[in-house]
Amino acid sequence: MADKKVIVTTPTERVIHWFLAISCLLLVITGLALAFRSFEPVALIFGGYNTMITIHIVLGLIFTIALFYAISIWRKDAGSINEEDILWMKGAGGYLWDAKLPDPYKFNAGQKVFFITVALYGLVMVVTGLILWLGMDSLGTGLLRWMMVLHAFGVMVLGGFAMVHIYLGTIGTSGSIDAVLDGKVTEAWAKTHMTGWYKEVGSKKKA
Ligand code: HEM
Question: Which of 16, 17, 171, 195 to mutate to test the pocket of ligand 1 (most atoms within 8 A of CB)?
Answer without folding.
Answer: 17
